[in-house]
Amino acid sequence: MSNYSPLETIIRKQIAATGPMPVSRYMQICLTHPEYGYYLKRDPLGRDGDFTTAPEISQMFGELVGLWAASVWNAMGMPQEVKFIELGPGRGTMMADALRAVRILPAFHEAISVHLVEASPTLRDKQREKLAETAYVEWYDSIDDVPEGPAIILANEFFDALPIHQAIKQDDGWHERVIEIDDDILAYGIARDPMPRFEVLLPPVVRAAPNGAIFEWRPDNQIITIARRLRDQGGAALIIDYGHLRSDAGDTFQAIARHNYTNPLKNAGLADVTAHVDFQALARAAEDVGARAHGPVEQGAFLNRLGIETRAQALSKNASEDGAKAIAAALKRLTGPSPEGMGSLFKVLGVSHPDIETLAALSDQGSPGGASKS
Ligand code: SAH
């Protein structure tokens, strides 16, 4: 009699056995359940999938990220070995485009070994194919497993897939938002008791929110691992995602299937469930452990400062008329305003060893960072 996805059946059993589950637990099961998790068995990307990402829109994205990495390597003092780490590399497109772009800098290209952190066996296969010609590539389940050494770390649309917690403000304080079974359907609920001492941790703007307001947060473990590593072993990270520059109240828990929004409580395991990234929280966590944060800036500004227009012109010169139109459309999509464009919804945050004072294209002042661009 079950019309539910196999994963929903599992979630219902857990709720029946142990009570309502926090949103974070629900999100974690939906995305990474070992048998039915969304990412485990499928390639969600591209026109035939559920969503498209910047590197899949145009090769220009990965190429510019590669050149950004080269300028970081300069700022690091050109170490002979550098680990190029990517978190959640999808189809491996951004890494392949970045590596191709930096072939013109042989000393940097030869210093690189590639280290991919990927949960999905299906996507690992795609990455292996895409990077078949790369001399050194290793895969890991977690960034904690990547061997030591100076590193340049990339994460595009990785953080939005990490589970969020939600809290909801009531008369007597903030309560965790949970998923329960109500009238035989999965529904949002509110944990019975408020979370003690929770409010003092909140930014003032959130504390002042009215009753019913929702606040979202992610555990800090990933950003803290990254920041500590950069602080101790050198290097920088580039974190790109949709989200907000400043912490605030708001419900951004969402599901996307076949390029459309759907109800995150329906089709568990069959739709991508994500939430916006709180860039202020990431930057603060990185600085709290002694790394340096750069930006965040909007993706449109970041790509413009790295010279995406010049790159688009160069590519168009050798393209057919249709090809040139496609390049112009991709440029607009990557840098333009919402709703069609990703330029302002997506933000870019740099994190580095504290001695690296600027990172290319990430200073707040409007001009590119001081790291060498040659
Ligand atoms: N960066 C790629 C893909 C983004 S989709 C692009 O821009 O196209 C999110 C990626 O993160 C996928 O590769 C997914 O399998 C991976 N992922 C999600 N959660 C993860 C986790 N907890 N650990 C490792 N990889 C994860």
SSE map:
Blueprint: H1 6-18, E1 21-22, H2 23-32, H3 54-57, H4 59-75, E2 82-87, H5 93-101, H6 106-111, E3 112-117, H7 121-130, E4 137-140, E5 151-156, E6 165-170, E7 173-182, E8 185-190, H8 204-207, E9 214-217, H9 221-233, E10 235-244, E11 254-257, E12 260-262, E13 272-274, E14 277-278, H10 279-288, E15 292-298, H11 299-305, H12 308-317, H13 321-335, E16 346-352
Helix pairs in contact: 4-5, 9-10, 12-13
Residues 31-32, 39, 45, 53, 55-56, 88-90, 94, 117-120, 123, 156-158, 161 line the site of S-adenosyl-L-homocysteine.
In short:
The chain is of the alpha/beta class and 374 residues long. Helix content is 34%, strand content 23%.
What does this structure look like?
The protein has 374 residues and is an alpha/beta fold. The protein has one domain (1-164, 217-306, 341-352): Rossmann fold. It is built from 13 helices and 16 strands. The strands form three sheets. Strands 2, 3, 4, 5, 10, 14, 15 and 16 form an eight-stranded mixed beta sheet that branches. Strands 1, 6, 7, 8 and 9 form a five-stranded antiparallel beta sheet that branches. A three-stranded antiparallel beta sheet has the order 12-11-13. Helix 4 (59-75) crosses helix 5 and helix 9 (221-233) crosses helix 10. The chain is globular, with a radius of gyration of 21 Å. The model is unreliable at 366-374 (pLDDT under 50).
